[in-house]
User: Fold these one by one.
Assistant:
Number 1:
Amino acid sequence: MFVYEISGPQPGFKEGLLFNSCVKNLQRQPELWLDECPYLQPLAARRIEGLRVRLVRVRDNAMANTQALPLAA
């Protein structure tokens, strides 16, 4: 899981907003921003001009719990 920050001149985006995505290198794929960023859902595609997406961190949730679970009978 990747954590990205989206920011830009549009109202509400100036401070930057964090969101999660499973898409690697999303910052280089603006054609996917409308699908991956929940803050862009109400915006039209033409309103993403001027926005920037940057990778903040990578989280590996799959490795968070390595405890073996018992099988259900």
Note: The first helix runs from residue 33 to 36.
Number 2:
Amino acid sequence: MLPALMVRFNLFESDDDSDAYNTGSEAESEESEHIYRESFPYLLEDEWFLKCFHVSRDIFKSLYDGIAPTLLSQYEATVYDRIAATLRYLATGTCTSDRGVGGYKAMPRAEFQAMFPQTLNAIRQLICNQHISLKPQNRDEQWEAMSYFRRILGPTPGVAFCAVGTHIPIAEPSEQKHLFYYKYGTYSLNALMIFDHRKRIRYVNASFCGAMHDSHLWNSSGVDSHFAQQHAKGNEKCNLLANSMFPSQPWIIKPKPGSVDPTFNARHERALATADTAVHLLKNRFKCLLGKPPIPYTPPECVAVIDVCCALHNMCLDENLPDIK
């Protein structure tokens, strides 16, 4: 795991703690508030935002309202332009090279490179704690998840989640390259993700180097302690599916080699495909994660990119936005 990453979020809780991700002053002047509110293009249609940024106008506006006070005057570009360029990069994997797509005009490269890290981290602080959490959103959620997985798995106790590792291609690091080497001359981060039955991301830790095997992701993440605590409390509704590379724990349901039930492994594979489908949806919406080209930033900055994409993925699911092909 990367030793010098930015602060990780407490992804086990979803309570809205404004102090945890307050990105601006609590006392903005009326004049400043008027300026940043007036600079948002209210007349643009929702379809335009979906086409250019793969998120809705409401999601864009929530980001704008959340970070505008602190980003108001630090760069020549407006707050709207900074968020637009950031989301355009996340959606397409490029920003400075596309011109006129859907009416969007790209930001000059030097300006984009200067503003991107701060804008991205402001968005990260605003949305990640709020939208990525293992804590149930309501009383019915775990029962719905259990019913979903029971229909596929049969009488397997208490399955509510799926866990997978997925590689995110990154540019060749300047230091410790061997830790990030994946295969065929490429470099990556190996991100541990936990999904629910609705394909929402309930946990993400993208701080693992690409050379780390899937078998080490779980033990190195620290997330096992959450499930161990739930198991100790007698909570039988938070088990999860994983592949055979994950460690053996009472709360981790893996394939069973040589099982007396010849259909169990096939059902397990179909149920775990929920996570594979979710990863596919995530990377299709935010094509910067596809590696064409690899994310051209330092590993810690790449972690921030992945975190923000995951939170935005959940926000898009909450709004029932159409999938991106």
Note: The chain has two domains: 18-131, 141-298.
Number 3:
Amino acid sequence: MDTSEILRTIATLNTRTVRAERIIARYEQELSAARRSLAQTNHELEEIAKLAEILYETNRKLGTVTDYLLEQQTTKLGDQEPKSFDAVFNMVVKQVEDKSKSDSGDVGSGTHGASDYA
């Protein structure tokens, strides 16, 4: 091997090294951005989990209160069903019917109004 071949080999290796260093730097930047994004996503997930726990607990307490009120109403009426139960039951049935009608009628539009859940 003569000197020119050695210099050409060194230059080729140097070029490849510089190219590899640039690629590594770019991957390190992408990794850093991905880690920041993951940390933010994990933080948001924790906040959502806390909110879900609060909503679940609130729903459970409201259910307990509703059960108590319905039980008190039943006790007052004796064997009759409470009117509040009928009202709640009728409202739920109407919502289910309205939702099924809107789902079958608005399949192409993809829009659902707030009235579906009111």
Note: Residues 113-118 have pLDDT under 50 and may be disordered.
Number 4:
Amino acid sequence: MTSRQVVTHHLRELVSSGDVIVKLSDTDTDKSGDGAMNRRFQAHDAARDALYEQWEQVGMRTRNANKGVGVAVSLDWIQSCVDTGVVPWLSRVFKLIPSKVSYVQDGAAQQGARRNAASLLNSCGPSAFMMLACLLDPLFNVVAYGDAQQQARAQQLLALLLARDFMVPAAAAFHAWTLFTVYLALPSTRDALEAGGGYDAIRCLVHAVGTRCKGALFSARYAQIASTLLVNRMNTCGLATSGTAAPLPAPVAELVDALSSSGLVPVAAGMILQPPLVVNGVPIPWGPGIPYPKNRTAIEIHAAAREVSIAMNVLQGARARLVGAGGSTSAPGVAQLGRLLEHRKVAALRHVMLQRLAAHGRLQPQPPEEGVAAEGGADGAEDAYVWWLTRKEVQDGPVTDRGITGFDDRTGNTAGWLEDDHCHAVLVSLGYWRGTELRELPPDLRRRLAPPASAPPPEVIARLAARTAEALCRLYHGQGLGGAYGPGAPEWLFARNAGALVPFDFSDEASAAPEAELQACLPHWLEAAAWGLALGVEALAGAVERRGVSHPNATHGGMLLHESQLGNEATGPERLLQALTLPSSHATRNVKMSSEVRADLSARLRRAGLGASLDRALRLAFTVFDRAEAPGATEWERSAANILMDAPFSTASILGSQLLPMLGPTGAAVEGGGVSGVLVTAAKRASALARQLEELVEAGAGGGETPMAKLVRPSTLVLDALARGFFALREELRKR
């Protein structure tokens, strides 16, 4: 038989045996010892295992083939699913799962009915969740890489999977499965199932929890694909931009309704947050004698968190587009997506992803007031503010699996794909709270939009931003948990994506904040910008070395990598240099910082390496300026030079704030490339410019658009930096 015929054969067995199991289980009579029933269970489980093996082969063929062959392989799999009625079968099973979970939970139900329900769930549930994932991925592959005719075929089937009538019961089934594991973990439930003998409730629990871990990944993948295809529909159908509340195109409105009504994203977030169950001191599903890999739970939840963070980021952007199209938050679809993004489980996930990022950067746990309780309840979400996955990684080392994440790097290199994970974590937390996805909206509309209700207080956001930027710097320097990022060269995704460094720039808040907020937040805003600048100049240095060419190892395929643009390496440092000029416009005029606060802030900025970052930024800017004027300059060099044009002016303003010491405690220059290094760099540049001016004068160069005129502004800016720096040095010496 051909591979397609083999898949079709196993699918028919899976569907037919599953239907028989459902029919035979619909009784109060205990079927756990029934020979015919057990044979059906065995046939169903064997078909599922065979299909999973076939699916892995399909995945290998798709990854290792060109796009055309990959699409053909995907279409073969899809056609087998269509021929065997997989989608209607999935719909039937998903609608059945919540009612069967209710049987297991119902202490008044007959023991036979409860046993039958639990056994049915542990057989058909894993199959349904797996087949949904195994159908979504090839469909998405065809939509991404197929020709117009192939895409049309895939879209027809996708329309069924993305319809409200399918997505609502699917999400309900995932949520019910979480409850199923919680009920089975209760001693009273297991005792009732095992009463009289002949039933192994612990084995049932182990299988259920293993399925929950996979279900978290499958539901997250479903949410990510649905969210991405929502944006595809918005692009295809177009949105009215009249600024009025015009109705959404039907395909867009239908998918918004399906996502909102199903709560698929919050369901996936809840499954991710649920901590591993512990029975008699043994973590389930792993334990002595249990054939389940010790770290499998953490690996699958790690992968699920990645998928959900992508979905959240995509939905943030989709909501911003709807706000822009309708001109207000009352525009169609805005409130529905807003409810998804503000759900308590999604809000809790934002915080714990930031916690995990900090742990990956080897930072100490944050104080409780900066954490958040992942609000608990019947679905078993953790009450503590520290995510169980973070706690495990701190104790046992980071959990990453490139096979699950899709980035097969045999060198063990975490650069690129782990950067992508962390970049998403920042965008859906700090970025969401501060509305960075709204930055493309008209300023008057943006000013009318209130911060998300789930956003922490401004001072907490400021502290978290500084902490996150520090963690990222540590990661990029190879100081992270388990050596991440490394051992390969980083991709610098934060610097190459226009919105990724925005969460560390608080210029907009500073211009509108009341005095009390400014007083509390300004030190943390500056610290965040200082760490962000350190990150940005590292990326800029790499870009200058490569003359703007992408890193040759940038092959992991992360979404944010494909959105990276050349020239953005200069945008980040320039933006953060501007953010660090806040003291000259706010601190010295509106905010009176006590000597203690100034001393603490100076220490924070020094620890963030601000002096060294300023020195390096200035040297890199001068290098780019010279290259841009030379024959054979690249497009990136000319673009970067234009972006960094005001870097000397920003540096001068920062020096003028006198927040960084020029001298060490003994009067010597601060070591490690401190602010004194900036003066040396500026002095060398001034000397070089002076020589150029002298040469032009000797050559008889005139005014107007001559080489001499071009040197006037850069010379003025460098002299300004020197003047402010020496003034700060004089003041520091005077106070000693």
Note: The radius of gyration is 29 Å.
